[in-house]
Records
---
Amino acid sequence: MTTLPKSLPLETPRLAPIRRSPLPRILLWLAVMVVTLWVLYPFAWAVITSFKTQRQALEPTFVPFLQFQPSLENWGAELGLGGRETAFALGNSIMISVGATLLATLLGTLTGYALARFRYGIGNRNIVSWVMSQRFLPPVATLIPFFLFMQRLKLIDTVPGMILVNTTFTLPFAILIMRDFFADFPEEIEEAALVDGASPLQIFLRVALPLATPALTAAAIICFAFAWNEYLFASVMAPKDAKPYTFLVASTSTVRGVHFGYLATRMLIAITLPVVLSLFVQRYIVRGLTLGAVKG
Amino acid sequence: MNRRLFTFVLVLSALFTLLSLTTVLAQDQTFMGKTAEELFPEVANDQERSSAMEALLAANLPDATGRFAGQTLTVSVQQAGARGGISGPYYFWRPAFEAATGATLEIVEIPQAQYFTTTSTDFLTGQNSYDVMNIGAWFLSDYVVNGWIQPVEQFFDQEGFPEWDRDAVFPSLANLMKWEDQWYGVLNDGDAQMLYYRKDILTDPKWQEEFQAETGMEMPVPPKTWQELLAVTRFFNGKDWNGDGDPDDGISLHLRTGGQGMFHFMSLSAPFAITPAEGDDPGKVTKYDNVYWFDPDDLTPLINQPGHVAALEFLKELAATGSEAQFGWELGEAWNNFLNGNAIATFSWGDVGSLAQDPSRSIIQGKLGGARIPCSERWYDRETGEFVEDSENPNCVGNTTGGSWFPVMSAFTDTPELAYYFMAMHAAKPINFWNVVYGWTGVDPGATYTLFPPMGTATVEDYVNAGYNADDAQEYITGYGENFFSHPIYQTYLRIPGTVTFWEILDTRLGQAMIGESTPQEALDLVAQEWENTNNDLGREEQLQIYQTGIGYTPGG
Amino acid sequence: MYKKTRARYFFLMPGIIWILAFTIFPLIYSLYLSFTNANMRNFNRGWDVIGLENYASIPSDLRVGETVVTSVYLTLGSTAVTLVLGTFVAWLFNHNLPGLRIFRGILTMPLFAAPIALGFMGLILFNETSGSINSFIRGLGGQGVRWMTDSWSARTAVLLLDAWQWTPFVFIIVLAAMQSIPDELYEAARLDTASGWPIFRHITFPLIAPALGTVALLRLVETFKILDIPLSMLGGGPGSATQTYSYYVYITGLRSFNMGYASSLAYILVIIAIIISSIYFWRIRARFE
């Protein structure tokens, strides 16, 4: 009973509503609204705070113009005076996240495909378990050894170094998502190609890969979000040349206390890109998360 | 041509000519061939730019382009951005530094909470990325003992470096930059906690009368002891003394765990727990006098001694005369409450004095009162094992609580001379003074020339020109100076390896006591126990030796 | 038949080698460190191997007990909250209401908020004097909650933030599971004129239970690692109230630089992780081959 459908037709739920009276429907909508508000509320509060000066930020006021005079000070500082640094850190974040995403999905697709299609002496299940266990390890445990290791490779405070770190952390997720996708994927099509004399690589590239686009997208967006949000390793390994944007978010807590307006501004900037991406590839995320967690 | 258009063009060209003329006039002074606009591209107003240019020229920086051209200097600093506290001035003076040396200055900003972790990891793993690090005074012991930084005295009084006045540095502050009588740090910021209060309210006859009626004592302006301060904050707490219709607060403190709350405890507990030495030199360190942290003979923690415990009990009483939320406040929130006119008093760093002048942060400009940190009418004498009470001659102990953020030089730098040039430039009198006067820099007074006579040579006008209210400047700067010069003795700073750990432990347990999760005695007993463990882990013998050296104690002496 | 081809290693190895290369060394090295007295002072001067001493001193470390309490509360609490809320929201979205799609998109947004930023966001939201949550409570006539100055309230604030972020994760998975339930089952039930709750209780719930179990385990493990939110929101305070076990490992290893001891603390976590993952695989073993 736990097998999920191969595609999740979320647009057409199968369960018809109970239509005896209009009341449940109103209640349902009300509940949906409440849930939506619960989700949006922190974002809304951050938006309001980002238009407040430090003095106003510490007053419980909600409505601009009526309750407080909105100020562009924070946005101005972030995009104007500090614009260069913002752009630099965002650039790093994008390079690191995109790099890690590409690498992790590339390697994850190959390995995931392998685990779904071939048999290995050591036991496929054991390999999958081992890959999965990587997600359970607390990253703090390995920070210093990791640092020493990266130092040997002369990759401290470089974008390639941070790509490598983030690839390592996101790869297990990519492998699991892709493995599940290929496991559900009918083998018959590939076997037909095999009969035509194609090599395994040709089959993979020409038959399997094109059909895997949805899962690939899902894996990619999840890896991207993980890499984009990483702070702990970056704060120690990339304070200078490869500084990502999460670093700037953390730095709103200064020797003179937390600057709330900046904080809200930077938080919104940090959240915007992955959230916008997530809205664009909505359907694939649902697939990806489902595959990755329920099945593997 | 249309006549109107002609007039318009005429006026426009006249304006343009006038504008270029003023620009030319303003550009009459250059430094290393650069104009003020080029050297200080990002300023709040013209006054800031012209005064900075003046300071730069007065600093008389030697031309060092011959020696340093093409080199790069990497400096790490607590992150607050190009116009933020402590990191701001490094950006502000960067073009001038680069013009004077021909070198490139790379500023690496690291979030404050992460700073010790990031820089230490860098050293531990032999990465050695930074030439100069701006550090808090409590990092110094670890940095020195691990051999990560080097003394800078070899460069003193050498030709070709900016001059700065070492003798002008407040003595207690200079001690923090030295290790075994050698200078490692160079002047930048000077931290100590002083008392701020609302002068307008405390001197208001109406309130004075009411105060006397209610408490039977005369309103102390300024409060000179903690006990007087408590009477004042207790009186005002819950009364609507600012006229906004709501009850207002007495004291405003930053007591959040991780919000530098333990610094409040340090400043407040000093006169409860430290006794001066008998004889000619009250500052002499003996087994019982002028020690605060550990017993100088065997490193037994003193933090759970009756004096310290009484101080913590007192801090709780004092905190009860303010908002309950202050146990969750960090710096910004506590300052804001005072600057917003909701609290009658606070004790904190010099920043409050300068922030009070910033209209976007404060509504109390012109109403500020400042005084040195209060004394205590009750303190514990460890030698006799008894509390002493004396309201006529209270026990006064000054502090250098805080970071006093200053630059130190890496032991592994390839460019020590350039590094020292940078450090000395920021300590050069006109530049340091400029930083102090412009409060946004976060640089607090650390040298006598920033004070008023008789302690120093500054004038109120210097501060007024930078936007201060004259009365506020008088109150704040005088109070700050007295804080550094008028106390008979000063609290020793904790300077042994592991200070970061010791303070983290203290901060955590204080937090528990403040929110009533444990009693002051229980909390400080736990601190003592955990401090013992930490010292044992780090090597007790070596720790003891370093501690004795750090506070200047000779066993048996 | 092609399952035996040599090419299978070409597909498998890049990913496996990558993981091996970058995780084996740090793991073994930390294991080694956990048997030493490595700290900031001796790290470059040579440390001593001290056997199991680090592990032996863990039980008497007060902080361990305190931080484990916090971690367990957060882990169980947040998992429970996300499961209940996530299932409820999934149930809502399993109805055929026009326009729900847009809302589904909005509801996944929290998943992509950086935890470090989220902690700072908590600082604004839960602020006792100016925070909007307390304003809201007061507006409803209640008393402000001491989110930052009371231990359990502070832990709860962290819990709520974590739950806010991860409820969408549960929601998505449970919704998928619900939609895989064949219509026929519902139709049969409806003929019996059963209404909303009994249908959920007797048909939906048993069928989504396996998915819920999996999600619960995943959430348990992920939440036990929580570090960024307490770090940025409350600095572990008030007192040690929001110091989680991971947080303690972090400050021991990377602020006090007591690396030997921190590694032993971390390895305890590794052992717990191995136990939990074993349970995990034991539970879903059937689905793997």
---
Amino acid sequence: MSWPQAAERRAGQGAADRWLAALLWAAALFSSGIVFVIVSTVAVEAIPFLREIGLTRLVSDEGWYPTYGRFQMTAMLIGSLVVAAGACVLALPAGVVSAVYLAFYAGRWSGRIYQRLLEILAGIPSVVLGFWGLTTVVPLIAKVEQPGTSLLAASFVLTLMILPTVALIAFARIAAVPDAYYRGAIGLGFSRWQAIRQVVLPAARPGIATGCILAFARALGETMAVVMVAGNIVQVPTSVFQPVRTLSANIALEVGYAMDVHRSSLFASATILVLAVLVIFAVGRWVAREDAHV
Amino acid sequence: MSEASQPLLAHRSALRRVDWSAPAVCAIPVAVVAVMAWMLGEIAWLGADKLSWTFLTEAPRNAGREGGIGPIIASTGLIVGICLATALPLAVATSVLIAEYLPAHSRTVRVMRTLLDVLAAVPSIVFGVFGYAFFALALGFGFSILSGGLTLATMILPILIGSIEQSLRAVPLDMRIAGAGLGMTRPAVIARVLLPLASPGILAGTLLGLGRALAETAALVFTSGYVARMPESLLDSGRTLSIHVFDLSMNVPGGSGPAAGTTLLLVLLLLVLNGALLWLIAIWRRRTGMSFTLTP
């Protein structure tokens, strides 16, 4: 809502208005430019690694022994993807069903309460989830198979983190589907579930997909909760009970003491991480734009 | 979908055949709520006997296994204070430009909003290594409360701008016309009329940002550092409640008792914040008749 022209012409005169506008422009350029400062700072720190080692050795080296000049990150890349995918396997269906519950099955109060609880869950710090995972979930998993800190623990904790994102976005998109779709389907003799499954969800699909894509990006970038429960051993996991180390966890574990090229390699992995998240983000945007055409 | 529209028709079809989907769909929320209750209950159970006045005021001893978290609460306050003191003026200025000076659908606004959305999507560990390279090393602030606070400020900026812009846009157009009609200049209308009217929304956004700042760990480990002493200046290192929980549970064997106490305090703080937020949003709804979107 910008100002009506006449009002703007009257109130937008004088030196005070020009000075304020100049000040606000400076602030706005600063805040919207920060993202460039962040990405370029991290990328510049990665240059020594790119120059001396190069990207191909991230794949071709034997293992991750940075102090001995071996920089293979494949295991950690796979670790990141598998942990995030594992979280999505649980969180996406549960999130979408939660949204369906909020939209069609919940009573007036139970729906409101569940929505508030999801908002609270979204705000629970990752370190709190990590602490609970470490004291409660990990020992439970250890009873099934040692050591307990594992891919499974990491994915489970991440599930709780991204479920509210999926559920709240999907709910908003389902609520935006015109009422007439659902009523029409019921009028044609569809059952409640058939109407939802075959009419409402397909209509909301691009919006829901965007929510899922954003959730995957969050899972990929999440660090502390994963560091606490994943076990952090650099290996390609062959079962869900094995420890893994993700790319972001590796940065958090090693930046504190890394020197020279090792340090630069961590900034290189941070650059890879942020670029991956931004590409996923752009895909999400693109899918959302498809939504606008419907 | 409104509640009013579905029952009549939906129930008629439900009379014809039993609706098995209801228990199946409801099982998921029940499971989610059960896991949440399990988690919060466990944290309350583990942390309740730790939480006492001495725990909140004393300094930690023996790497945090004994003593309390007094200096950690102080550092947390300072870091969050710096974060809000820098981010809030910047966010208000940016939102006022976007909402009051630029045409709503202009290209400039679209570009700025996209850049802020991208900023919001950057993972927190990347903010951490950025703050380490930029504030701690390049600007020479070292591992300090200042570095940590500034890093957090860059992180919560998009949340603040999103909610402040939303609040300004909810103030009716008439207010601007009336202000101009009374001969007020635009800066005067903004300062005396629009910002005061938008204040509940601005405060709600601030609480949202505060919650994010309190919850953060990854962005702080390499910027504000780990030191658990009482900070004497803003250039001292200081650890927040979140980092304390992380350090105790990862690096200090036998530290899970005080970690649970600190976790409980953190959760309680966030629940209080959440309650205040709901209250503000209710005020907002009564005043403007508009809903307030909490971006997940």
